[in-house]
């Protein structure tokens, strides 16, 4: 399948744009809540949420529009050698491509996988201890939240790693081409889903968000 055809680009464009708009709205709502109610940021676990949210929000509002323009028009938005150095053009060079794959893709995936497994094992051990059960109840939502984000990250990036390893074992470029065509756009999923997963450990913001939607959907009776 040729992912460079206008039809396929239109499908990917529509899918990403449909997820991008709610993701930005949710991120802005959470950030506004953090700014307005500073006491929420006093909790240590919310510092992690804020850091993840800001990093992914910057990626969504800075990188994704350029990708959407390329999908919509079929051309790169900024066509200059300087801009190309900051984009995926450097992947045409084997040494830079290998460095990027090892340190920016493979290594984070391995670390994230090991850390998530370690966290799950530690949780299971703590739940068996009587004295640790109360700690688990207090931190349950935060742990579920972090594990959910880690699992989304691994689900997206592990296939990318596998598809690049297969050509080293078998003489076929199809897996790598598939990774380039499909997984290049799937990698935006963690950034797009991060605001919604962040709400798991933010009950105050969920309540405020629900109240906001309730007021917006409330129809005033005609007088």
UniProtKB/TrEMBL annotation:
Q: What highest taxon heads this organism's lineage?
A: Eukaryota
Its localization reads:
Membrane
Domain (G-protein coupled receptors family 1 profile) spans 1-198
Q: Note the Gene3D superfamilies from the entry.
A: Rhodopsin 7-helix transmembrane proteins (1.20.1070.10)
Location, primary (coarse class): membrane
Q: Which InterPro entries match?
A: GPCR_Rhodpsn_7TM
Q: Which GO terms describe its cellular component?
A: membrane
Q: Which UniProt keywords apply?
A: Membrane, Transmembrane, Transmembrane helix
Q: Which regions span the lipid bilayer?
A: 12-35, 47-71, 101-125, 146-170, 182-202
Name-wise, this protein is G-protein coupled receptors family 1 profile domain-containing protein
From which source organism is this entry?
Adineta steineri
């Amino acid at each position: 399948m040729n992912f460079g055809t206008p039809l396929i680009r239109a499908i990917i464009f529509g899918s990403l744009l449909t997820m991008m708009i709610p993701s930005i709205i949710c991120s802005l709502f959470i950030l506004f809540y953090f700014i307005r109610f500073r006491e929420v940021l006093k909790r240590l676990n919310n510092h992690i949420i804020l850091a993840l949210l800001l990093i992914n929000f910057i990626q969504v509002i800075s990188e994704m529009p350029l990708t959407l323009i390329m999908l919509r028009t079929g051309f790169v938005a900024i066509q200059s050698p300087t801009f190309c150095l900051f984009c995926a053009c450097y992947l045409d060079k084997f040494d830079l491509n290998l460095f990027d794959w090892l340190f920016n893709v493979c290594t984070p995936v391995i670390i994230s996988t090991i850390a998530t497994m370690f966290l799950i094992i530690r949780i299971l051990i703590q739940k068996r201890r009587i004295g640790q059960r109360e700690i688990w109840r207090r931190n349950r939502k935060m742990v579920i939240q972090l594990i959910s984000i880690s699992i989304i990250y691994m689900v997206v990036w592990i296939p990318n790693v596998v598809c690049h390893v297969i050509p080293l074992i078998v003489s076929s470029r199809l897996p790598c081409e598939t990774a380039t065509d499909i997984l290049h756009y799937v990698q935006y999923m963690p950034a797009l889903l991060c605001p919604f997963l962040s709400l798991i450990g933010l009950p105050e913001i969920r309540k405020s968000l629900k109240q906001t939607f309730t007021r917006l959907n409330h129809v005033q009776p005609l007088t």
